[in-house]
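Sample log: Podocin.
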Amino acid sequence: MPGFNRVGVLCADEFDADSGKNIASDGGRRSSGAVEVFGAVLTLLSVAFILLTFPLTAWMCAQVVQEYESAVIFRLGRAVKGRAKGPGLLWFIPWLDVIRKVDLRTVSFNVRPQEVLTADGVPLMVDAVVFFRVVDPSLWVMQVQNGYQATVTLAQTTLRATLGANTLMDVLTHRPGIAKRMEEVLYGVSRLWGVRVERVELKDLTLPVSLQRCMAAEAEAARTARAKLILAEGEVKASRALMEATSGLSSVAFHLRYLQSMSSVPSGASVVVCCLPTELLDVFISQQH
């Protein structure tokens, strides 16, 4: 029966495929288990050999880890379980283990000057300084090949992206806030490498010469306008004060004030004095009242 044969063939193919997968997975587990057993046996033999020849092999199996360091141990290519070792005296099997020491001190580096285009189209030359330290030596060794270079490259690209999303005035007036955002972005990415970014600072902002001249001219014009406005307001207040002062003076008091003002004029000054009759002052004062 053709239909039955086709069904039988399909079922047989599916069975063979599934059985092949099972065989492959079982073979992988067996090989992995065999490797683990071989590694355990080799480790036990190495420990037994070290114990038997301890006085001679003691200097080969000891390693000193400084207070500011941690050591990640790889035995037969696999990381030894548990946290990183150190500081202090560390024992290892020299022909089976590989030790990678990691410095835990804070490291700083300068981000070379980057030409950044702000959100309003202004070109800037910006450099920064970044402070970071390793908090998880295992991730630092196993998750990134060259952690220092990767952090430097990440800081350069983050600097471009962060400043490119802000206008020139935001960059000039909100530098601490921009540095804080850069720190958050760097920490969010680099923590997967076992790194903690502690601080980011923008060192210098260099504007084009033409833009500096324009900003200087704008600032000078604003200061000149503000000075003229203050001077005009002062003259208005002085005129109002003089008007209030003269409104309460009699003709005799006004005349005495006039003579007092004349006496305060320096003798060497070239001043033209015009004498007016007192009757004209009386007429003027009467009109004011």
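Observation: Residues 1-17, 19-25 have pLDDT under 50 and may be disordered.
Observation: The two ends are 133 Å apart (CA to CA).
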